[in-house]
């Protein structure tokens, strides 16, 4: 999200783009990293194609999405990872809406079961993944529990207060998966997020992204039909029995 050099950031100005529920639905539909055409985004937002064009123009104007022409269609995607980070932070802070339809129930259940969060695995599956790593001593430094009375362990932000560390056993296990651990560089502490549906920690940061990318490559997980949702494939259920939600 662009901001002028010097001076304070105009938070209120960009925040107006998030103030309309239809624009939020557009952004959430794009939050799994894919590029989608306006017609698909209109369906997700529940508006006509002409109306979604106006909302997309606002999002483009605020630098929240980018557009690329491919053939007859114009495809939109989030401008950068910061936008998804804002969405995830707002989701942790926002009150839950009542589920009043089968479609809403299906979407809520899919996102709670497994979803992407800033390109790493979240939801029940993400929490189980991190919990399994802790149980197997692949990662040490905490127990994966969110402590509501700890001002550092906040729902609205990622953290590394527990100084989670990847052990030699974890490094070997991830090497067997083919995970690119070079992304860790020399940072000894691992990042985590407080999962907004499970109220527990899931793996975040470079390692969280690398693990999730590799699970997709191995076809252990796949994109679900609900935007941002993830499903454990039959291959994944066979190879990662301890991840079953």
UniProtKB/TrEMBL annotation:
Matches recorded under InterPro entries: ArsR-like_HTH, HTH_ArsR_DNA-bd_dom, HTH_Metal-responsive_Reg, WH-like_DNA-bd_sf, WH_DNA-bd_sf
Pfam families: HTH_5
SUPFAM superfamilies: Winged helix' DNA-binding domain
Domain HTH arsR-type intervals: 3-98
Name of the protein: Helix-turn-helix transcriptional regulator
Lineage, top ranks: Bacteria, Bacillati, Actinomycetota, Actinomycetes, Catenulisporales
